[in-house]
Each structure stands twice: as structure tokens, then as C-alpha cells.
Specification:
Strand content: 15-25%
Number of strands: 24
Number of helices: 15
CATH superfamily of the largest domain: Enolpyruvate transferase domain
Number of domains: 2
Low-confidence stretches: 118-124
Helix content: 25-40%
Structural class: alpha/beta
CATH class of the largest domain: Alpha Beta
Shape: globular
Mean pLDDT: 95
Distance between the termini: 7 Å
Length: about 450
């Protein structure tokens, strides 16, 4: 047996966690660093997670030089970038590989990008992104025999594009693609995630001219970017939610730092509903149950500032310890409940529920097909005393939820496939141990 955690659960967890840099911000900033010409870019608080390691390999294989000069300080030197075709094997492992369109088109005028990888939590259609690229003047064609997209940019991007539905990956890519645009590019119905604002801050700090007005983003073209000072990546809010749910599920107390209220606002609202005290501290927040039992509540996922889809697997585990019935509705992805059958192995009582929104095409953020049946809601019953189990991780956030369930469950559990979890969590085992958890890796 290998690539597994052995977790002896049922212990009360408590303590303090210093959060790592955000996965969803660091990956985009690393790729955006390739937009620079002959300057070394320094990104502080970069997490050493598997997705970052895969991305570094991809960039180095293109000829540029990327390396950690200290534990969480990354140096990117784009000067020697010489390739415009991504390696299929490694690019297929991470969805962010699709973002390479921007720097490679800028540097070479054409590029070859394979179908993106990442967790299989739904079809994750890229048609909105392709449509946006074409609207700005990029010629894109997909070749099914090779699995590659061929893209050509003969002149500076220009124009206007309105996303049919918000997409954070699409918003970030079109921002990067438009930095050196002709005159002005306007994007509407853009995603609102704070990680996008960090990308904008990074580019503007380096001379870009990008302005956000709610879901509208305006980009005035500039000739070049100039890196002025090291840029620090924000904390990972998905990591924060994982550890908070783990500790609260054992009725312990936890402080997480550093984190801003805006990043977790909708999560905090739900915590207060179920009877959790949320107290602001100097550099973070402290969480603890206000009574000896948690209340049940319903959630439905939506893009920021709503309740994030990445949070709901861990929330489902927490709701197994709440009194009553909790409904979780998934609106963002159509295959986000792959963890449910694994969670049942711990003794969790969960069942799928059919929901019938009045206008499903608008209600769901994925491309809804009325001919298909979508299991988009679950009911979680609690409180349940979870027992030990042997489970297997299918995607990143589901993997974290299974590890959390193992920490709540009495007895020794085996969680297989932890390399998937390491795609987005830095030092997971060490941080769990710091909270009093009993965990080892084999």
C-alpha cells in the first residue's frame, strides 16, 4: 500500500493554523509572470503543492527558468522562454495549463495547448473561454486527432466580450490576454473572485492599466510590464475552510491566519447560522461552537460572493455532526458529489434529493442540458457517530473532505490517493498534527 493516509480519528482537535498561499491565485500569477520580457519575477508565499510543481515543470520545459529560491519564495525568469507547445502529459494534469494561451500568444503569435486537466467534477466546458478569445481577435481551432488547440494572434487584441455565465478561469485568461491590447478591451459579466482581483493588482503594480467596476472590467493597453517589487500571494481560503470544518466537527476551537473577512464572508454567515462563534482577531479569526450541539442549515453553491462550490464537500462532513437535516444544492458543477458514496462508508446518512428550479438554464452555472438528469442536491442527516473506513480520493476537495471525515470518525481509517489532495494542500499532515490529529502517511 502507498499514497495513503492512516488516520486515527475521534479525538478533539484544537489549535492555530497559519494558512499557505492560495492555490488558485499562485498558479495564475506564475503564468502571468511569463508576460514580462527580461525581468525576474519574485512571488512570495507560493505554496509548494503538486499543482505548482507540475506548473514549474511545464514552464521549465518551455525554456524559461522557475525555481524556489527559499521555501515559499518563487523566482520566475521568462527571458529564455523558447517553446510555444505545452507538453501533453504534464499539461493534462492541471486545468490552469489553458492559461498559457496569453503569454505564448504574446511572445510567439501562435501556440499549441492541449485540452486542460484538473479534477473531474463536471464537464467544465471551455466554450465561453474560446468564444471570448475569438471575440478579441484570436483564431482558435481544435484538432481532435492530436488533442491540441491551435491558436494564432496576428494583431493586438481589441474589442468587447460579455460572458454568458461568469467564469473565473475565463475572466483571468482574457485579462492576461488584453494587457497589451490595442486601445481598449471591455469584459462584462466577469467573475468576482478575490483571486481575480489579486491578479489585477499584480499586473497593475507592474504597469498594466486595468479597472474593475463590479462585474465589468476595462483594460487599457500598455506596451510592456515592469516588475517593481516582490508580490505576496494571498492566503488560501479553501484551505481555511477545510481546517475549520475539521476542528468544529470535533467541537474544538481553532484560529486561522492570515485571512480577510471578505474572503470568507458567506462561509461565516453559515457558521453563525449553525451556532458557531466567529471572532475577529488581530491577524485572523477564531472559531468555536457556542453550544454543545450544532444546528442544521441549508446551503446552495454559487460563484463569489456566494457559498463556494469548493467548500461544500467539507461542509457536508460538518453537517453530519449537526442536529437535523441539511440540504446542500450544487449549482456550479454537475458532478461535485462524487465523495458521497465514500462518505457513506464512514456511516454518514446522506441521500440524493431531486430539485426542480423554475429556470434551470439560468439557475445552474454549468451548461445545462434539459435532456439529462442532474443529481444536484443531497440531504445530510445528523448528528451521526462516524466510524472508521477505507476510502479513496477522486478529486482535490473531495479528498480533503474524506480526510476530515476520518478525523471525526472513531477508529483507524485509510484514505487512499493522497497525492490528489497534495495538489492543493501544503503540509496537510503536519498541520493536522499541530491540531492534535493522529495522522501518518504510507
Amino acid at each position: 500500500m502507498e499514497d495513503a493516509f492512516i488516520i486515527r480519528g475521534g479525538k478533539k482537535l484544537s489549535g492555530e493554523i497559519t494558512l499557505s498561499g492560495a492555490k488558485n491565485a499562485s498558479l495564475k500569477l506564475i503564468i502571468a509572470s511569463l508576460l514580462f520580457d527580461n525581468q525576474r519575477i519574485i512571488l512570495e508565499n507560493t505554496p509548494q503543492i503538486n499543482d505548482v510543481i507540475e506548473l514549474i515543470y511545464l514552464i521549465n520545459k518551455l525554456g524559461a527558468k522557475v525555481r524556489f529560491i527559499e521555501k515559499n519564495i518563487l523566482e520566475i525568469d521568462p527571458l529564455s522562454l523558447s517553446g510555444n507547445k505545452l507538453d501533453m502529459l504534464h499539461a493534462s494534469k492541471i486545468r490552469v495549463s489553458f492559461m498559457f494561451f496569453a503569454p505564448l500568444l504574446y511572445k510567439f503569435g501562435r501556440c499549441f495547448i492541449p485540452n486542460p486537466g484538473g479534477c473531474r467534477i463536471g464537464a467544465r466546458p471551455i466554450d465561453r473561454i474560446i468564444e471570448g478569445m475569438k471575440a478579441l481577435g484570436v483564431k482558435v481551432e481544435y484538432f481532435s486527432d492530436t488533442g491540441y488547440y491551435h491558436a494564432v494572434l496576428n494583431q493586438k487584441p481589441k474589442g468587447f466580450y460579455r460572458f454568458e455565465k461568469p467564469t473565473h478561469t475565463g475572466t483571468e485568461l482574457l485579462i492576461m490576454l488584453s494587457v497589451f491590447c490595442q486601445d481598449k478591451v471591455v469584459l462584462e459579466n466577469c467573475a468576482l473572485e478575490p483571486e481575480i482581483d489579486i491578479l489585477i493588482d499584480f499586473l497593475n503594480q507592474s504597469g498594466a492599466n486595468i479597472r474593475r467596476i463590479k462585474d465589468r472590467i476595462e483594460i487599457e493597453g500598455v506596451e510592456k510590464l515592469n516588475f517593481n517589487r516582490p508580490f505576496k500571494i494571498i492566503s488560501d481560503r479553501n484551505e481555511a475552510v477545510t481546517y475549520i470544518c475539521a476542528v468544529l466537527g470535533t467541537f474544538g476551537k481553532i484560529k486561522v491566519k492570515p485571512i480577510e473577512e471578505e474572503a470568507l464572508f458567506s462561509f461565516h454567515q453559515k457558521l453563525k447560522e449553525i451556532g458557531v462563534l466567529v471572532n475577529k482577531d488581530v491577524d485572523g479569526f477564531v472559531y468555536s461552537p457556542s453550544t454543545l450541539s450544532l444546528k442544521s442549515t441549508d446551503v446552495e453553491t454559487s460563484p463569489h460572493p456566494g457559498f463556494m462550490t469548493d467548500w461544500q464537500p467539507n461542509w457536508a462532513v460538518l453537517m453530519t455532526q449537526a442536529l437535523g437535516e441539511s440540504l446542500i444544492i450544487e449549482r456550479v458543477f454537475e458532478n461535485r458529489f462524487t465523495y458521497v458514496e465514500e462518505l457513506k462508508k464512514f456511516g454518514a446518512k446522506i441521500e440524493f434529493k431531486e430539485i426542480k428550479p423554475k429556470d434551470p438554464e439560468k439557475y445552474f452555472f454549468f451548461n445545462y442540458d434539459k435532456e439529462k438528469k442532474y443529481p444536484q442536491a443531497i440531504k445530510v442527516y445528523g448528528p451521526i457517530k462516524l466510524h472508521n473506513a477505507v476510502v479513496t480520493i477522486s478529486d482535490l476537495r473531495a479528498g480533503a473532505s474524506l480526510a476530515v471525515a476520518a478525523l471525526l470518525a472513531k477508529g483507524e481509517s485509510v484514505v487512499n490517493g493522497v497525492s490528489m489532495l497534495k495538489r492543493g494542500y501544503e503540509n496537510f499532515r503536519e498541520k493536522i498534527k499541530s491540531l492534535g490529529g493522529e495522522i501518518s502517511e504510507i
